[in-house]
């Protein structure tokens, strides 16, 4: 998943960013409310981890502005504001969950997984040329045979399989894999494409010379 971490505390931000990247998520880190608002207007995210006490613009206002744009991106508030009134206000503003600081990192991951499952529950499984992906369960299969995809293989295949025949550039696929400031190896996408071809078949993902990659509209 591509996540936006909104956190002004450097120590907490670095720890959470490292944790999420260790789980193979692409993470962008906004350190104030204005930067968070800009990121949310420019980039689509799978989930937002939002602090409330932020410089520039309060996190609650960031959330209200997001929901005012009819953006339903899941939002997990993570804050030291522990009054019941604060929790009610955050949830009423459109947050999907509310986690109090200091929190256990394992609990944070569990809550993120729960929100991802909830969001995927409304997404239908889709299938093309014998390859089937089910976002709700994160299950993949080829001609009815289950295959195990890594998180980053899934991140590459998902947008390609969703639009058979559409060409995505390497940069577009890298955007699914890496967050701001994260080092990108020159052949990262090629490595995951190679892994997908081994698991799904040599013709499952095609290289369009000079343009990028595509899942063929018709079975190869």
UniProtKB/TrEMBL annotation:
Ranges annotated as DNA-binding: 123-217
Keywords, comma-separated and alphabetical: DNA-binding, Phosphoprotein, Transcription, Transcription regulation
One Pfam family here: Response_reg
Entry annotated with the keyword Translocase: no
Membrane-spanning residues: none
Entry-linked InterPro entries: CheY-like_superfamily, OmpR/PhoB-type_DNA-bd, Sig_transdc_resp-reg_C-effctor, Sig_transdc_resp-reg_receiver, WalR-like, WH-like_DNA-bd_sf
Modified residues (4-aspartylphosphate): 51
OmpR/PhoB-type domain ranges (all copies): 123-217
SUPFAM superfamilies named among the record's database cross-references: C-terminal effector domain of the bipartite response regulators (SSF46894), CheY-like (SSF52172)
Keyword Transcription regulation among UniProt keywords: yes
Location of the Response regulatory domain: 2-116
Protein's UniProt name: Response regulator
Species: Comamonas faecalis
